[in-house]
Amino acid sequence: MRSLEETDIWSEGVEGVDVPGYDRDGVRPGIVHIGVGGFHRAHLAMYVDALLTAGEARDWGICGVGVLPSDDRMNAVLRAQNGLYTLVRKEPDGSLAPRVVGSLVDYLYAPDDPESVIERIAHPDTKIVSLTITEGGYAIDQTSGEFDPEFAGVREDLAARVPTGAFGLVVEGLARRKDRGTGPVTIMSCDNMQGNGDVARRVFTGVAQLRDGELGAWVAANITFPNSMVDRITPATADSDRDALAERFGLRDGWPVVCEPFTQWVLEDDFAAGRPEFERVGVQLVDDVVPYEFMKLRLLNATHQALGYLGYLAGHRYVHEVAQDPAFASFLRGYMDDEATPTLRPVPGIGLDEYKDTLLARFANPGVADTLTRINFGSSDRISIFLLPVVREQLAAGGPVDRAAAVVAGWCRYAEGTDEQGQPIEQQDRLAEEMTALARRERTEPLAFLRYRPVFADLADDERFAGAFRRALESLHSRGAAATVADLA
Question: Which of 18, 53, 331, 355 is the most buried (most CB within 10 A)?
């Protein structure tokens, strides 16, 4: 049994496991990434590793940063393993394709040493600061889409002698770059949001402006924020994944990452201080990401929401179980064809029917074993970002909204906190307390849930959508999720 704590493993190798063939000691960190989780390690870190394997990008290694107390475990694992981890591609036939990834050449844990994080951001070698801090992690008002200066931690960070949150750390690093003449960087969001770069621009410019007007102007004039569309299903790592890696390949890894075979990254080519040659490893560099964003967010991500709540209520626990259920598969394809697709722009180089076929096949991959609990995480942010824009465009155009209304009703029924067998459902959402209280009032106070304006704005006032929501919720209460979905399939 070999362990990734044995830091010579990339040179000696493990049978059946690809390992870095490059000298990691010669890789300098040019990217600082905040929010090192499964998706980052299956996506950006994988692309940089591929470039390093090809003999490129020696100045573009990654320094990972953890800012939350919960990142302490990642800190411990990556430090013990010298930044190495195993990326395990899970094929539909159950086979595994593991690779040890070496592009994370350093990791800093901000709660212990925020000054080191700030100095790494301010270092002349740093050219990109990238982010995966989740859709709800940005200081944005979900209704207006504008920077929210009262977002948790923003003002506290600005008032602190040394900030510890993501926005405070980055803005302090930018201030030092400005003062020292180090030059600009690119801030690159890799989160699932429409216009993720535009969102990051509003937030970081807003925080910088709050700190100092001159700094805010410098950030606005010098820092670039490319938009991107990122895509790879990356379920949470389970103990069974660690066991399979050990049993099949004799490799012990404290925190491997599992992922599907499919990966896509469409990236706006707008970098202030250079970039790796991402196009050499399959990244699509484009002038306009918007059509690809709409396609992915409104088809893949919104469809995840469509299957998550209703599938859980119907007794399923994994994405592939829902996608393999004929009634659900028909319901999901109907949502994509009739409600989401009419809101999309033409997507250069993509056939939408083929893309939707591929999505359903990806969802049905049993090897991935993606849990419904994972995709139901952060409901209020994900529904707001992925599904409700489709609803609003369809209402404005007079198009159908019945399936989307059923998804919102499914979230409401899920938020009540018990399934159809009376078993508790743990709510993992920043607005869980509010949404559960409102969901439980629905039976005696119709539309209480939909009238929560921080999420739904004025949708409760639209008779067509409100009526479809009430009909679906009544069906869920009286007949259950399976019958409700079958009627809409």
Answer: 331
Domain boundary among 286, 315, 341: 286
- Cα distance between residue 98 and residue 107, in whole Å: 22
Structure confidence at residue 317 (pLDDT): 97
What is the tens place of the pLDDT at every residue in 419-472?
A: 999 999 999 999 999 999 999 999 999 999 999 999 999 999 999 999 999 999
Indicate if the pLDDT at residue 142 is higher than 90: no
Give me the CATH number covering residue 317: 1.10.1040.10
Q: Which domain holds residue 23?
A: 2-286
Tell me, yes or no, whether 404 and 429 share the same domain.
yes
Provide the CB-side half-sphere exposure for 18 (13 A, CA): 14
Rounded to whole angstroms, how far apart are CA atoms 52 and 384?
38
Strand partners, 268: 286
Beta bridge partners of 98: 88
**Residues with Cβ < 8 Å from 25, sequence gap 6 or more?**
none
Furthest C-alpha separation in the chain: 66
Indicate whether 346 and 282 sit together in one domain.
no
What's the number of CA atoms in the CB half-sphere (13 Å) around residue 222? 19
pLDDT digits (tens, 9 = 90+) for 311-365: 999 999 999 999 999 999 999 999 999 999 999 999 998 999 999 999 999 999 9
CB atoms within 10 A of CB 418: 13
Three-state secondary structure of 60-116: CEEEEEECCHHHHHHHHHHHHCCCCEEEEEECCCCCEEEEEECCEEEEEECCCCHHH
Query: pTM surpassing 0.90?
Result: no
Q: Is residue 140 domain-shared with residue 282, that is, in the same domain? A: yes
Instruction: Say how far apart CA 67 and CA 133 lie, in whole Å.
Output: 10
Looking at residues 357-380, what average pLDDT do you find? Answer: 95
Residue 138 maps to which CATH number?
Answer: 3.40.50.720
